[in-house]
Design brief:
about 15% strand; about 50% helix
């Protein structure tokens, strides 16, 4: 009809040019009252003590950007294909609290990774393997957070050194490296997941190692297995004076 080339126009502006400001305004108008609900949801996701990539993943998943047919595989909630993921996330948060919501995030992340491995690489992970990945990831993350918190509050000292004798203080100040160990017990499965974080004398991160073992029903045994695993690692890969940290008083 007209002797001119076709071009794209943004019909929400008189000049036909798209801008971020214009797109944001239209988005707010079309979503209406959903904006307030999404703001609350985002605040809850932001409060989770999880890795940044998991936080970004959860936000995209809860906004419905990711396919959700695999979420019914999450064992910690009864989620059917037709359920809303953000609705289940709110339910988990309201009924069980932030800590379980964090576990929910780790489980969802690893189910998503397993789904992608199967879809793109034809790699099949068993439920036990997925659980192992979740436990390892969660232990590593919480161990690192515990180290950061300890360093921020007390430096490298594991306790109030002003109440220790001089020889003990000297020992703590001259260690070659430190190991932080922890374990989690899964009563229903009769299994434990454990991990340790190795830290240099300067407070730098060396390595994180973890493991999983079935047939464990006692918390003290779980902690002992984790500590044995850590000491075995240190014997083979670390040199010099060391100190091992544990939060289990039975072992101490």
């Amino acid at each position: 009809m007209f002797n001119t080339n076709d071009s794209l126009l943004w019909h929400h502006e008189r000049n036909g040019i798209y801008t971020v400001k214009s797109g944001y305004r239209i988005s707010r108008y079309e979503h209406g009252t959903r904006i307030g609900a999404n703001d609350v949801l985002w605040k809850r996701v932001w409060e989770l003590q999880i890795p940044p990539k998991l936080r970004d993943f959860m936000w995209r998943a809860l906004r419905g950007v990711l396919p959700t047919k695999c979420w019914h595989l999450i064992a910690i909630v009864n989620l059917t294909v037709n359920d809303s993921l953000d609705g289940k996330f709110r339910q988990v948060w309201n009924d069980s609290g932030k800590e379980v919501a964090e576990l929910f995030s780790f489980v969802a992340w690893h189910i998503w990774n397993a789904r992608n491995d199967f879809l793109w690489d034809a790699k099949i992970l068993s439920p036990n393997q997925i659980v192992y990945n979740v436990v390892s990831h969660l232990l590593e993350w919480r161990s690192l957070n515990r180290i950061r918190s300890s360093q921020n509050n007390y430096g490298r000292q594991p306790a109030d050194v002003t109440q220790m004798d001089e020889s003990h203080q000297s020992f703590l100040l001259n260690v070659g490296w430190s190991l932080f160990t922890d374990a989690a017990l899964f009563h229903n499965e009769g299994a434990t997941g454990f991990g340790c974080v190795a830290e240099s004398a300067e407070g730098g991160w060396i390595e994180v190692v973890s493991g999983f073992q079935e047939g464990v029903f006692d918390p003290a045994v779980a902690e002992a297995i984790g500590r044995r695993y850590a000491i075995n690692y240190a014997t083979h890969f670390l040199e010099g004076t060391d100190v091992v940290y544990t939060d289990n008083q039975v072992l101490v």
